Amino acid sequence: MYPIMLELTGKKIVIVGGGKIALRKTLGILKAKGKVTLVAPIFLNEFNELDNIELIKTTYTPDHIKEAHLIFACTNSKAINQQIVNDASEHQWVNDCSQKENSDFYNMSTIEQGEYLLALSSYGKDPAAVKKKQEQLKKMFEE
């Protein structure tokens, strides 16, 4: 894996799913000024409180990702997530939240301190350990 930071301003990002993982991804993308379109038959209520997102309340079809730069497959169905991966074009980057081996990229855990951003990753192997290390480092920076 090659760590990079992406400029998402104006980029079209499609998130398929309406649960907690989709919400977490949406909040991060909005912070980076990405344009988020979400596709799911049901969404958590928290999505209704967000600005600058498009909610499409329906089941996924390949047309939903046709114009996307980044795609997040965040459904609770491995079969649907796999279909999203299969439907993506070669030029599109996909993150399958249910099967890391299907992903072109992963999100890293981050700590922001003033003008600095520290990113942590276990290469997708142990997110719980990364979260623990993140908390330790946050405490260290606060001291």
TrEMBL record:
Catalytically driven reaction(s): precorrin-2 + NAD(+) = sirohydrochlorin + NADH + 2 H(+)
EC category: oxidoreductase
One BP term from GO: siroheme biosynthetic process
Molecular-function GO term, any one: ferrochelatase activity
Alphabetic keyword roster: NAD, Oxidoreductase, Porphyrin biosynthesis
Pathway(s) per entry: Porphyrin-containing compound metabolism; siroheme biosynthesis; sirohydrochlorin from precorrin-2: step 1/1
EC number: 1.3.1.76
Keyword Membrane: no
Cross-referenced SUPFAM superfamilies: NAD(P)-binding Rossmann-fold domains (SSF51735)
Record's protein name: precorrin-2 dehydrogenase
